[in-house]
C-alpha cells in the first residue's frame, strides 16, 4: 500500500525485505527519506535508524507501527526523529509527514 500511494504522488520508491538489505543498498544510493516500521523482520526500525546514524547518513526517517504501545512515542522522540505514524494512517498523513521531513532536512526538498 505504501509503495502505491508514494508512486501515485510521483515519488521514486524502493522497498526492501529487511533492514540489512536496505543498509546494504546505501552503497549505491542514499534515499531522500526513509520510512521504517518499528517492528520489521530481522533488524527493527530503531536498529536501522541507529545504524544510519553510525554511518553518518543524515536521512530523514519516518517511523510507522501497528502497535498502540505509548512508550514508542518516547522511543521515537529519543532518536530525535518525528513523527511516529500509527497504522492505520491515511495517505494524507503519510504524504504530509514525508513533505515535512523533506522540507526540514538541510537544503530542503
Features of the shown structure:
alpha/beta, Rossmann fold, three-stranded parallel beta sheet
In words, what does this structure look like?
- This protein has 109 residues and is α/β, with parallel strands linked by helices.
- The chain has one domain (2-104): Response regulator (Rossmann fold), CATH 3.40.50.
- Helix content is 43%, strand content 11%.
- The chain is built from five helices and three strands.
- It has helices at 2-8, 19-25, 45-54, 71-79, 91-104; strands spanning 34-37, 61-65, 84-86.
- The protein has a three-stranded parallel beta sheet, sandwiched between helices.
- The mean pLDDT is 93.
| Number of extended strands | 3
Classified in CATH, the superfamily is: Response regulator
The gyration radius over C-alpha positions equals: 13 Å
CATH class: Alpha Beta
Number of domain units? 1
Strand arrangement in the largest pleated sheet = 1-2-3
Secondary-structure-based class equals: alpha/beta
Question: Quick check: average pLDDT?
Answer: 93
Morphology:
globular
Level-2 CATH architecture: 3-Layer(aba) Sandwich
First-to-last CA distance = 23 Å
Biggest β-sheet description: 3 strands, parallel
Percent of residues in β-strands: 5-15%
Low-confidence stretches: none
Q: What is the H-and-E element order?
A: HHEHEHEH
Which oligomeric form is depicted?
A: single chain
Number of helices: 5
Topology:
Layout: H1 2-8, H2 19-25, E1 34-37, H3 45-54, E2 61-65, H4 71-79, E3 84-86, H5 91-104
Parallel strand pairs: 1-2, 2-3
Amino acid at each position: 500500500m505504501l509503495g502505491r500511494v508514494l508512486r501515485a504522488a510521483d515519488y521514486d520508491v524502493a522497498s526492501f525485505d529487511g533492514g540489512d538489505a536496505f543498509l546494504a543498498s546505501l552503497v549505491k544510493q542514499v534515499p531522500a527519506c526513509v520510512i521504517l516500521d518499528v517492528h520489521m523482520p530481522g533488524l527493527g526500525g530503531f536498529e536501522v535508524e541507529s545504524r544510519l546514524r553510525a554511518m553518518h547518513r543524515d536521512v530523514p526517517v519516518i517511523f510507522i507501527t501497528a502497535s498502540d504501545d505509548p512508550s514508542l512515542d518516547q522511543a521515537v522522540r529519543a532518536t530525535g526523529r518525528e513523527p511516529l505514524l500509527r497504522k492505520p494512517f491515511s495517505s494524507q498523513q503519510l504524504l504530509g509527514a514525508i513533505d515535512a521531513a523533506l522540507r526540514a532536512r538541510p537544503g530542503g526538498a
